[in-house]
Each structure stands twice: as structure tokens, then as C-alpha cells.
Specification:
heterodimer, A: mainly alpha, Rna Polymerase Sigma Factor, Chain: A, Arc Repressor Mutant, subunit A, 2 domains, B: mainly alpha, elongated
Amino acid sequence: MASSDEELVARSRGGDVDSFNQLVTRWERPIYALAYRVIGREEDARDVCQETFLRAFRALGGFKGQAKFSSWLYRITLNLCRDWIRRERRTPIAQAPEGVDLIELASESAPSESIEELVARREMGRAIARVMAELPDEQRTAIILKEYHGLTFQEIADLLDCPLSTVKTRLYQGLTVIRRQLTEAGVNR
Amino acid sequence: MCDKELLVAYVYDEMSAADRMRIETHLRECAECRDEIKGLRGARVQLAAWTPPELDVDFQIVRHTRGRPQRWWSPAWGLAAAATILLAAAAAIANVQVRYDRDGVTVRTGWARDAAVASAPAAVQPLSASNTPMDAQYAAIDRRLRQLESAPARPTPAAAVTTAGLSDAEILRRVRLLLAQSESRQRSELAVRVAQIMTDVSRQRQADLVQIANNLGRLEGLATRDRVQHQQVMDAVARLAQQR
């Protein structure tokens, strides 16, 4: 039976590096996905992901468990993303290659998915990435945390240090912009 | 128009039962809010198409020890052992006091305490009058050196002892003998360690060969899969061309 985050954190705080590495294995994909969607660059998202775990490891002694371990990681990641955006002085980039590599696409397709469906899905993904990159930071972050990480309104409010009603407003505004822009781009279905 | 926050809460199904009943009642009467809900849900469905690239980070936290790792075969180890023996020998011949009187020559030294405790003149024997067997003397030296090796820092009280036929040359000879024995032990240990390393290297080499063989097999499998996928793509392109 797999240990809970709390158990692994307790053992990590006692100096057990293997336990912390289990946490890394468990959370590296969600953290990477969060960083990628917020800043939009694969390489930088990988760096942010790695830095998140390094900082968490160093600061583990100060983590008292008031919040969930995952929430703590999300907070570190979002802070690093914010620093990255500030440092780069630019908005997130919708990283999407111009050419479509059919061979690469074919290797990604599910057995039940045709090449045509796969191309359409990739096109939609690129369109979403472009629209998300144009959203204000606070709306984009709220949508990412809600849609892709399943956080509750309250958890998002705690992470972003804003009222619950603000979270709902940002989600409403963000979803409305996405819907409108996708319709204008002709990719709404 | 409905409260936007309530609409969002309804879309994400994160609201109280009372609020849900309230908004559902409203939606039955309000076409504009029904469209709004439909649009928000549609946007959510489309968001699912945005997937991040595959992650190939796979990093782990590794705790490094400070400083350079200790090697069992470090020259310092052998030097320390030699130094210990030399210190023991030096300690054994330290506090040497030579006195010559009518009772003969008396040597006071740090070892052979048993004979020295009885420091009365009766215990003092002439230098040339030694009757002690060589084996017993050697055993006494060996015991004393081992004591000194085990507790080199503790000062040993000097004691009077007869020379018992042990000249400086004899002492040096025995020290050299002990050093030779120590070197022999070190050589034996070195041989054992080298054999152990050779075994480890051989085992690692075998493991590497197995790993290489596995990777080659995997690469062959990937190449086959790529050929199949390439063919599938070509077929798809051909179909599309025919349809057009």
C-alpha cells in the first residue's frame, strides 16, 4: 500500500531522502504541467519543476503541514512562474510548432483515434494555448488550477490569496473570453 | 440575468443543494442563462484538448557527503599504520636511562615492566649475565608493543629493568621484524581488496552487457514500430489523396 503524502513528508523531515524522492515521482508531472501551462515553454517549465522540488526539499523543515503538501508545492511553483514571467518581462508563450509532423502525430495517436482526428485535436490544443496565453495572469492561473488540477474554489482562493468570489469571477471571465475567441478563430465546435 | 458566480459554481458543480435548486429553477425560465451555461460548458470541453508535452525530467534528490570520499587504499592508511608502529617502538625505547655502578649496567626503559617493578638492587643484573630465553623476551616485546598500539597516548611509567641481554641492535632488529610482519599483513589485505574489486568490476561489466543488450532490443522494437507507423501514415495520406 502506497504511503500518503503526509507520511512521506514526515519521513522526509526525518532525513529520509528516498521518501522525498517518492513525493517527487508522485508530483513531478502535475507540477511540470502547471508550470508549462502557466509559462508556456517546455524547457523553462522543466527548470521550474526541478527548482520547485529543490526548494521544497530545502524548506521541508519549515513545512508544518497546515496545508496539503500538494498545495504547498503549487504555491512554490506559482511563485517561481511569477518570477520567471517578471524576469523575462513577457507574457507566456503559446509554444506551438508551425509544421505538423505526421510521423510524430501518428506515434501519439490512441489506437481508436484516426490521423484526421488527431490533427484536429492538436489544432484545438494549439488554439487553446494561444487563447490562454492572451488571458490576464490571474484568470489564466485560476482556470489552470481549476480545470487541470481540480482544486476547489477555496483552495484556489487560498493559493492566490484572494476572496472566494474573486476566484469565481476570474473563472467566469476567463471561460467567457476563451469561448468567444475560439468562436472568432473558427475552431469552436 | 443570473449571478455570474452562481453560474460558475453550477458549471463546476461546486455549490450547496439549496443554491443548486435555486439556479435550476431560474434556468427553466431564463433562456439567456441556459445559453451562458451551455457556452461555459463548451469552453471547458475544449480546454481538455490542451495537453502539455511529455515530461522526461525524472530527477531525484541525491544527498552528497561532504569532502572527498574515503578510499580504503589511501596511502594515508599505510602511513598511519607504519607511524603507529614506529611510535610504539619509539615509546618502547624512550626514557632509556643507562647507569653503571658496582652492580653492573642498569637500563631504565618503558617496557618489560614486570621485571622493573622489583627495582631493588637485587633485581638489577649485570648486562652480561642474561639467562632469559629469547622466545620469552620476544613474547614480552610483542605484548608490550601491542599494549602500546592499543593505547599509544597513555603515558607509561618508566621502570627499572635489566638489559637482560637486549642490545640496541637487538631491539632494532626486532622492531624491523615487527615492521616486516606488519607490511606482510598489509600486502595480504591489499591482495584481498584487489581481488574483491576485480570481482565487482566483472559483475558490473556483466550487468552493463545485459543492459546494452536490452537497449538494443528495445531500439529494434522502436524501429519496427516506426516503420509500421510510417506505413500507416502513408496509407492515410494516400487515402486522403484519393478522396480529393
